[in-house]
């Protein structure tokens, strides 16, 4: 099982991790994503992961849904969230993977990133799309 979350700050910007596409030229964007430990509660885990990995916190969460990854193979569940009005509550000094940079982008850029392929991972594109259709209207 895994969790994806689109994180928005008080200025309405989205937190993305930017890196190079694996199989082509150009950049790719990712949302916050991690695998769940067995028996972990997805909502508690996403709150803790946001704080641990970024130093940000919020009380404004939307549950966007969950989906079985491959129904005929019982291969797990993806849980999707959107956090709004995230603010920095502590500094962190964790190293991010060398090929990814954390940055804030305007919400309007998410629309274009879906269309031009900057969000190449289907589960990340799905998370952004659900958030734009529901929580960020």
Taking the sheet with the most strands, its summary is:
8 strands, mixed
The first-to-last residue Cα distance is 28 Å
On the 0 to 100 scale, the average pLDDT is 90
User: Helix and strand succession?
Assistant: EEEEHEEEEHH
Helix content: 25-40%
Report the structural category: alpha+beta
Ranges where pLDDT stays below 50 over 5 or more residues in a row are none
How large is the count of helical segments? 3
Rg, rounded, reads 14 Å
Topology, number of strands: 8
Topology, element by element:
Elements: E1 2-9, E2 13-20, E3 27-30, E4 32-35, H1 42-54, E5 56-57, E6 60-68, E7 77-88, E8 101-106, H2 107-116, H3 122-133
Parallel strand pairs: 1-7
Antiparallel strand pairs: 1-2, 1-4, 2-3, 2-8, 5-7, 6-7
What would you say about this model in short?
By secondary structure, the protein is of the alpha+beta class.
Please describe the structure with a list of short key phrases separated by commas or semicolons:
alpha+beta; 137 residues
């Amino acid at each position: 099982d895994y969790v994806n979350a689109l994180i928005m700050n008080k200025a309405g910007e989205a937190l993305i991790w930017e890196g190079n596409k694996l199989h082509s030229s150009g950049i790719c964007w990712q949302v916050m994503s991690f695998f769940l430990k067995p028996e972990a509660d997805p909502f508690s885990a996403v709150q803790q992961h946001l704080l641990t990995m970024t130093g940000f916190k919020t009380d404004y969460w939307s549950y966007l849904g969950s989906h079985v990854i491959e129904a005929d193979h019982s291969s797990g569940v993806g849980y999707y969230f959107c956090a709004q009005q995230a603010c920095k509550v502590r500094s962190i000094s964790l190293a991010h993977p060398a090929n990814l940079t954390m940055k804030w982008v305007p919400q309007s850029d998410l629309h274009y990133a879906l269309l031009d392929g900057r969000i190449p991972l289907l589960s990340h594109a799905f998370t952004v799309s659900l958030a734009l259709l529901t929580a960020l209207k």
